[in-house]
Amino acid sequence: MSPKLPQNNSQTITEYFNLHKNQLQGESAEDSYKFAFNDRAFLARKETLGIRFELELLKPDILLRENDIEHTITVFGSTRFVSSNRAYEMEREAKTTEEKEEAQRALLHSKYYDSARELGKLVAGYNATQADKHNKLHITTGGGPGIMEAANRGAFEAGDKTIGFNISLPREQSPNPYITPGLNFRFHYFALRKMHFMFKARAIVAFPGGFGSFDELFETLTLMQTKKVERFPIILVGKDFWCDVIDFQKMIKHGVIEQADVDLMHFVETAKEAWTVIKDWYDLA
């Protein structure tokens, strides 16, 4: 094989654990005598990839069931947005041209943070009216900062359970502090994390975001377009943003999608509008 052709194009679990190749051979008597489930080097081998997939699939599912979580609203959006209070602080503290420009962007986008926070509060308020825990909807996010923090925060501050599906990254993403203890999960594989975003989702609410938000949104649209999942509300907050960065009508013109595909999405401007779409869809009191 050419030395320029990589054997693996991803961050392997071996690299993540900082294991060396010779630690995966299991040649020493000490390593061979370890319980298989207690042998990190063995579990990091390429042959056990399927086992790792199964574990990442199984662990959150079991714990969510034990916490009576059956229905979720999954919220996507930028990690970079901050609250309006924080944005005003940045504006007051800005000294350089770059800092002032960053503060202006923060102020522009802070409405989305505040809206995601309000959505979490609205969902929590509905849950408080439900005697049957199996009727409740719970806010689920990727567990990080920005829009994820805001949605978790709104639900958490209203006294509700809130879920975070975090991911290991080369520059580690810390969980935000508004996730219920015991419902704060950590994934290595994006694919398994995205499966859990969908499993219990009864709606997707996508705020403006970057590559990650687009990836998660289009994965959901593809699953729904191909009828791999039952149809449920896909809500995009901020029509100007979404229609500016993605020209859906031009996609229709080019024949790569149909109007029915665009009709899968609901465009709204506020948290209340997003919650109304969900309430009307499921005829919630």
UniProtKB/TrEMBL annotation:
One of its GO terms (cellular component) is cytosol. SUPFAM superfamilies: MCP/YpsA-like. InterPro entries: LOG_fam (IPR031100), LOG_family_nucleotidases (IPR052341). Its EC number is 3.2.2.4. Transmembrane segments: none annotated. It catalyses: AMP + H2O = D-ribose 5-phosphate + adenine. Signal peptide: none annotated. It comes from the Bacteria. One of its GO terms (molecular function) is AMP nucleosidase activity. This is AMP nucleosidase.
